[in-house]
Amino acid sequence: MGIGNDAVEIRAQGWRRLAALHGLIEAALEKELQATYQLSVVEFTVLDALSRQDGWHMRMQQLARAAALSSSATTRLVTRLEDRGLLTRILCADDRRGIYTELTPAGQQLLAAARPAHDGVLEASLSQAEQIPELESLVKALT
């Protein structure tokens, strides 16, 4: 194997380790958030992203990037969360094509209730992953 091939393999190994860590964390978060708060990880991510905005709103395109979703998947997700009363859509005053998304008080309350569980599961998952030799250095790099 040449130098170029070695570099490709090293990157591939790193990517596989990152994917394994992500999968471990996401599975644990999904289980807890669904069971206790009826939220998926991506729904939590959307509520969390909206909570961190000045004025509590965000354009749909920004929200799609924050949640790593396509525009159509974001629209479907926002519709589900809007139907549950957790967020609302607002037309942009300057650009009628622009749509903002904003947390409702119910969305803020659910997020506030779920955040400690999310953070606890994240911490526990990272501690668990640190015990796996292949993931130890990656977890340490994150912390």
Describe this entry's structure for a reader.
The protein has 143 residues and is mainly α. The protein contains 6 helices and 3 strands, in the order H-H-E-H-H-E-E-H-H. The chain has helices at residues 3-37, 41-51, 60-67, 71-83, 105-130, 133-142; strands at 57-59, 87-91, 99-103. Strands 1-3-2 form a 3-stranded antiparallel β-sheet. Helix 5 crosses helix 6 (133-142). The chain is globular. The protein starts with a helix and ends with a helix.
Present the secondary structure layout.
Layout: H1 3-37, H2 41-51, E1 57-59, H3 60-67, H4 71-83, E2 87-91, E3 99-103, H5 105-130, H6 133-142
Antiparallel strand pairs: 1-3, 2-3
Helix pairs in contact: 1-5, 1-6, 2-5, 3-4, 5-6
Keywords:
143 residues, mainly alpha, three-stranded antiparallel β-sheet, 72% helix, globular
